[in-house]
Amino acid sequence: MPFYTVGVPPTKAALLRPVAHEPEGDAGATLPHAPVAPQALLSQCCRTMDSAPFTRYLIVFTVTLVLWISVVWAYTAWFPMAYRESGYVSWAAKKAMLDGCELGQIAFFGDSRLEAGFDPADFTAPSTNFALAAGTAIEARVAIDRALACPTLPRQAVISLAPEHFGPVSSFYWLLSIRYGFLSAGDVLAVQRLAAQLGDTETLATRTPEGLSGAPRDWLYAAGFPSLSFSSLVRGRIFGRYSENQARLATAKADRGWAAYVGGDPLRAEHPGRFIVTALQNAEFEAALSALRDRGVAAAILIMPYAQTHEETGPVLAAYRDYLADMAKRTGATLLDPEIPIWPAPLFADGAHLKPSSAHAFTAELAACLADGRLAAPCEPAAPGE
Length: 386
Fold this sequence. Notes:
Blueprint: H1 12-16, H2 38-78, H3 87-99, E1 106-110, H4 112-117, E2 127-129, H5 137-147, E3 156-160, H6 172-178, H7 185-198, H8 214-222, H9 230-235, H10 242-254, H11 279-294, E4 298-301, E5 306-307, H12 314-331, E6 334-335, E7 342-343, H13 356-367, E8 370-371, E9 374-375
Parallel strand pairs: 1-2, 1-3, 3-4, 4-6, 5-7
Antiparallel strand pairs: 8-9
Helix pairs in contact: 3-10, 5-11
């Protein structure tokens, strides 16, 4: 307790002045020490009381965020049919048919021109159309490698790629081939390594719409990072597309991979001013043809029809034709038509892809080239009415 001088009343200042005492020493004396300011005591108290709850808040927030990201990540990976846009279904159907080794007697690989232009239902030999929208030599090689892992191989494999798909890849390589899961993380890594070995810095240099590039971008897409599918999740109402996509999947399998193009195609790339073949695309194309040859599967190269409106790109198409002819000689493949087929523009849905009726006619023309269960050269599909 505070103490005062006997007989002298304490002043107001004395009443307010704190007096502290040390514990009694050996001699029982009381040893005073320097007073502690009230502000310092309050500050120390608040720090002690606030730090623990704030740390707990950070831990809870971080754990909750990680759990939510993990849940969304798992959902986007395991239930793509529930929210993906309709274009995904074609990729899923072809991946499923490859995994199930539903190859047919003749298997077709390539890009959207082939996907729209060849209908296995009109072909007299059992066949499957594994062509992919915006597909390049990379996707064709991956698909052929998977087909060659099947216990029963096709008698013939046909590859058809447009000129623009031998150059630098477009953003659809990541948006479709990787994001849709057709290329696995292992496939993506193998492509990266091959490009590095070849010193090719051009093929994979394209930036994706969010501005990403390089290996980090490749791994984010290969891992299926949830934010890359945010738009699909919102538009698909999380689980709103499941029934529709299941019906589309059944149709795509029944059509053996053929897709009807009836309008403008946003995936179609413009023709470059010159024919460009990058080192990576050239290596992938040659590897696909060589793998077929080594496994005893006849390989053929098919040139799809071009609209008369593309005649102004004659030098590009001529260089493209010469490249295919040289590749066929080097790998032992068959170039089915040494010339570029030019068809009337009204036969195309959008200037690049054949209309469904034109696709039926083109497939029938191809069927006329069958000899001993394979397509044989020369095979020159004529346009309807010619």
